[in-house]
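Sat 14:20. Reprocessing the chain from the morning session after the first attempt stalled halfway. Input below, unchanged.
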Amino acid sequence: MKVGLLIITHGNVGSSMLDTAISVLGTCPLKTQALGIAMSGEPEEQLEEARRYTKRLDQGNGVLILTDLYGSTPSNIACKLRGDKVAVVAGLNLPMLLRVLNYPELELEDLVQKALTGGRDGVLSCRDLQP
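Finished this time. C-alpha cells:
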C-alpha cells in the first residue's frame, strides 16, 4: 500500500499544479486529491470535507498533505488533520509535488523529507545558472 496525497490550497492552485504534474509525468502514481479552499467558505465545513478526503485517501500507510501557504486557512485546516498517520508540509511548489510523485514507494516520513528537499532544491536563482 502507498501513502495517499492530499493537496489543500487556495482556490484552484492545487488542482492546477496536480494537472501540470500529471502532464509532466504522464501518470499519477499516488492516490491523490486536490481540495481548493474558497475564501468565502466556512472553515469548519471545509475542515470536515478535508477529513473526508483524508479518510478516503488513507490506504493504511497514511496521508501526506501538501498546502500552499503556512498560516493561511488551507494550512490551518491541514494542520488540524495532523496525527500519527497524517503529515503536513507547507510551501507547495511544483518541484515539491513532482519530487513526491516520483517516490510513490516511500513511507510517510520519508515522503515528507522528499517533499521538503524537492521544494527547497527547486528554488534557484537563474542568474547564476548556465542556459
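The longest strand covers residues 4-10.
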